[in-house]
Every structure is written in structure tokens, then in C-alpha cells.
């Protein structure tokens, strides 16, 4: 019985943090708001959307988004309003335009550079002349005998 209760509690975990008092009366507007809020980052929880976050700032962003939609903004206008207010960081999937190309390309570029440097190092080591072990000189052999005899 305890296991069944535990399983039901795990299955009944909330999928979204949207409170009933936040929800819009119009189902079409609410569906738009939910879809848009899945693409906006909670500024407190980092990699969690405002739709999933229980933070008070995420709640404020959800309410702000719904207010913009009720005011008649299109999806793009509502998201642009929030981006202008909080910056591009609020987008879970920022656009790859302008200076963002540098950020998007920096990781793969650094991987290629590191691979090239590693390849050049390994290739250079394999082509380097090997240091042959030089035979001992007569003085070194005599010194070695002295050390071993002691």
C-alpha cells in the first residue's frame, strides 16, 4: 500500500508551475501564453522555463506575458517586449545572429584548434630524431667502476 501511494505521488508531480489565478479565461490565449512561456528562461532558476519554475520572478514574467497577450500583442511583440526589458538571456534558445555567431562558433572552433595543435605536437614528436643512448666514455666507465666497487 505504501509503495502504491509513493508511486501515485511521483506520478502526480506538477508539470507546470502555472497557478490557477494566472490562467486566462480564453483557452486560445492561454494556449499561446503557455507555448510562449516554454521558450522563456527563468532568471532565477537558469535553465528552466518560466512555465516550469516556481520562482516569484517567473510568476511575474508569466503574468506580464499574459498581460501583453490580452492587450493584443502578437507572439513576437510579447516576446520582444520581455527581451527588451530583460535582455536576450531570457530566451531559452537565443537567436544565432550578429555577435551571437561568435558565441555559437567559439566552441567548435576551439575544438578544431585544439585538435590541430594536438595533431601537430604528436606528429612533431614522431618525426623528431631519437636521442640514441651514447656509449660511456672511458672516464665515465672508470668512475662507474669506482662507484660500484665501493
Please give a structural write-up:
This protein folds into two domains: about 15-90, Helicase, Ruva Protein, domain 3 (Orthogonal Bundle); about 100-125. The chain has helices spanning about 1-10, 25-35, 55-70, 75-85, 100-125, 140-150. By secondary structure, the chain is an all-alpha fold. Helices cover about 60% and strands about 0% of the residues. It has six helices and no strands.
What is the CA–CA distance across the termini? 83 Å
* CATH level-1 class of the largest domain: Mainly Alpha
Q: Number of helical runs?
A: 6
Q: Percentage of helical residues?
A: 55-70%
| Tally of strands | 0
Report the CATH architecture of the largest domain: Orthogonal Bundle
Helix and strand composition category: mainly alpha
Rg value: 32 Å
Q: In the residues, how many domains can be counted?
A: 2
Instruction: Classify the fold: give the CATH topology of the largest domain.
Output: Helicase, Ruva Protein, domain 3
Encode the helix/strand succession as letters: HHHHHH
Proportion of strand residues? under 5%
Q: Any idea what the shape is? A: elongated
Give the biggest sheet.
Answer: none
Low-confidence stretches: none
Mean pLDDT: 82
The CATH superfamily of the largest domain is: Cytochrome C biogenesis protein
Note the quaternary state here.
single chain
GO cellular component, one term: plasma membrane
InterPro entries: C-type_cytochrome_biogenesis (IPR051263), CcmH/CycL/Ccl2/NrfF_N (IPR005616), CcmH/CycL/NrfF/Ccl2_sf (IPR038297)
Keywords: Cytochrome c-type biogenesis, Heme, Iron, Membrane, Metal-binding, Signal, Transmembrane, Transmembrane helix
Transmembrane segments: 101-122
Amino acid at each position: 500500500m505504501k509503495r502504491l501511494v509513493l508511486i501515485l505521488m511521483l506520478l502526480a508531480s506538477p508539470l507546470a508551475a502555472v497557478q490557477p489565478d494566472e490562467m486566462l479565461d480564453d483557452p486560445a490565449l492561454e494556449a499561446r501564453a503557455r507555448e510562449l512561456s516554454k521558450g522563456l528562461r527563468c532568471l532565477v532558476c537558469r535553465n528552466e522555463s518560466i512555465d516550469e519554475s516556481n520562482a516569484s520572478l517567473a510568476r511575474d514574467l508569466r503574468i506580464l506575458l499574459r498581460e501583453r497577450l490580452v492587450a493584443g500583442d502578437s507572439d513576437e511583440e510579447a516576446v520582444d517586449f520581455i527581451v527588451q526589458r530583460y535582455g536576450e538571456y531570457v530566451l531559452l534558445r537565443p537567436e544565432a545572429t550578429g555577435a551571437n555567431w561568435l558565441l555559437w562558433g567559439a566552441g567548435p572552433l576551439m575544438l578544431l584548434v585544439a585538435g590541430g595543435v594536438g595533431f601537430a605536437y604528436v606528429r612533431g614528436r614522431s618525426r623528431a630524431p631519437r636521442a640514441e643512448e651514447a656509449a660511456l666514455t672511458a672516464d665515465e666507465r672508470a668512475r662507474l667502476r669506482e662507484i660500484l666497487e665501493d
